[in-house]
């Protein structure tokens, strides 16, 4: 019987499989494992999405292309909402769902929710026609203030006419980082014209969380802009760069993006990465590889990429053969998506230092 996580997308409960693996595990010495969750509610999630249709005067929008596509319905369900609810309550209702679920988590105490700037035209203004998803900073900064367990992750397209002013503003409004998805926002991180933007990020001490690797959560994507080699300009400028998802999936110049990012860690001490989305079915095996790569776990931070936590995209059962069976069965029973993600990654071998480091790098005091 499917269960629901707070009104989200049904998660499968393979009952027969659970009984079988629990039985098999009773006799298996490999089942004596680390605790399922950290001992206290001590985890910061730096990668949580929200979205909106403009309800309640949010200023958010979703392109006609995305709204008409098959992903739209999935996403509404994954966000734990419906069109009706958004229209009735306003887009900020998603933030109240996030806040409630994080409050409910036994492991995660705070989450950084991400704004999403759009494509910018030649005049330096928002190009609504080519923007697929827009979550304005003003809306998010204002709304997260109502929730003590949510933090503001800003998004500023550096091609905006007033990009530097916008950076000053988001910093003033409490932003803890700036997020880009270059393939969707049409940003070339290697463009020398971005040098003043990088200098401003450094001056304001704002880390740049940037999607690298292929992008498949939206419609058309310019994947060449997700090439990790394009991060060097920001790194040379001394910006703290957090390369999302360890650049897993996709290729550039005939080479895996994952392979292309690895040498950069040795070259730049200001380069970090984060492990959101690495339990997805299309990213199988990468996290294990990354955990074995010398020095790389010391640069890892924690994020969930919520709401991309639904079946069949993610399931603990995809780790069968790598995670002890009893642990998989325990994971399958965790209802809270944040706890499930933390527990699954711990079971996959992510050390506790990764969770601790997330607070340190974002300079967020723990309570
Ligand atoms: Zn994401």
Structure description:
The chain has an 8-stranded parallel beta sheet with strand order 1-3-5-6-7-8-11-12. Strands 2-4 form a two-stranded antiparallel sheet. Strands 9-10 form a two-stranded antiparallel ribbon. It has 367 residues and is an alpha/beta fold. Helix 1 (15-26) packs antiparallel against helix 13 (325-332), helix 7 (163-172) packs parallel to helix 9 and helix 13 packs antiparallel against helix 14 (337-347). It has helices at residues 15-26, 64-68, 71-78, 83-89, 93-104, 137-144, 163-172, 182-185, 195-204, 232-236, 257-267, 286-292, 325-332, 337-347, 352-362, and strands at residues 43-49, 61-62, 108-114, 133-134, 150-154, 177-180, 208-211, 241-244, 251-252, 255-256, 271-274, 300-301. 35% of the residues lie in helices and 12% in strands. It has 15 helices and 12 strands. The chain has one domain (42-362): Metal-dependent hydrolases (TIM Barrel, Alpha-Beta Barrel), CATH 3.20.20. The structure holds zinc ion (ZN).
Quickly count the helices.
Answer: 15
Which structural class fits the helix and strand makeup? alpha/beta
Strand order of the largest sheet: 1-3-5-6-7-8-11-12
**Oligomeric form of this entry?**
single chain
Distance between the termini: 39 Å
Summarize, please.
This protein has a single domain (42-362), classed as TIM Barrel, CATH 3.20.20.140. Helix content is 35%, strand content 12%.
Topology:
Elements: H1 15-26, E1 43-49, E2 61-62, H2 64-68, H3 71-78, H4 83-89, H5 93-104, E3 108-114, E4 133-134, H6 137-144, E5 150-154, H7 163-172, E6 177-180, H8 182-185, H9 195-204, E7 208-211, H10 232-236, E8 241-244, E9 251-252, E10 255-256, H11 257-267, E11 271-274, H12 286-292, E12 300-301, H13 325-332, H14 337-347, H15 352-362
Helix pairs in contact: 1-13, 7-9, 13-14
Residues 47, 49, 305 line the site of zinc ion.
């Amino acid at each position: 019987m499917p269960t629901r996580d707070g009104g989200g997308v049904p998660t499968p409960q393979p009952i027969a499989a659970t009984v079988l693996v629990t039985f098999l595990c009773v006799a298996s010495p490999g089942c004596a494992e680390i605790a399922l969750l950290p001992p206290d509610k001590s985890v910061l999630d730096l990668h949580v999405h929200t979205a909106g249709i403009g309800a309640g005067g949010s200023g958010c929008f979703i392109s006609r292309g995305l709204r008409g596509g098959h992903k739209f319905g999935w996403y509404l369900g994954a966000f734990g909402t419906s069109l009706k609810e958004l229209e009735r309550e306003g887009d900020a209702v998603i933030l109240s769902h996030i806040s409630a679920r994080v409050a409910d988590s036994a492991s995660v105490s705070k989450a950084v929710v991400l704004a999403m700037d759009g494509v910018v035209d030649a005049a330096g203004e928002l190009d609504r026609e080519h923007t697929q998803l827009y979550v304005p900073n003003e809306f998010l900064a204002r709304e997260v203030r109502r929730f003590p367990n949510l933090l503001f992750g800003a998004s500023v397209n550096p091609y905006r006419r007033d990009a530097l002013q916008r950076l000053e503003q988001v910093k003033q409004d409490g932003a803890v980082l700036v997020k880009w998805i270059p393939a969707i926002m049409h940003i070339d991180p290697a463009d020398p014209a971005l040098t003043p933007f990088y200098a401003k990020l450094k001056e304001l001490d704002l880390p740049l969380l940037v999607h690298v690797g292929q992008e498949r959560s939206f419609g058309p994507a310019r994947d060449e802009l997700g090439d990790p080699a394009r991060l060097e300009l920001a790194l040379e400028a001394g910006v703290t760069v957090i390369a999302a998802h360890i650049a897993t999936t996709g290729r550039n110049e005939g080479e895996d993006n994952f392979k292309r990012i690895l040498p950069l860690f040795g070259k730049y001490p200001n380069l970090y990465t984060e492990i959101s989305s690495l339990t997805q079915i299309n990213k199988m095996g990468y996290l294990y590889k990354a955990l074995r790569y010398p020095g790389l776990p010391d640069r890892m931070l924690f994020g969930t990429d919520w709401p991309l936590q639904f079946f069949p995209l993610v399931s603990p059962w995809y780790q069968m053969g790598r995670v002890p069976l009893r642990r998989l069965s325990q994971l399958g029973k965790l209802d809270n998506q944040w706890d499930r993600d933390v527990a699954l990654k711990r079971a996959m071998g992510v050390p506790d230092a990764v969770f601790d480091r997330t607070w340190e790098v974002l300079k967020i005091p723990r309570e």
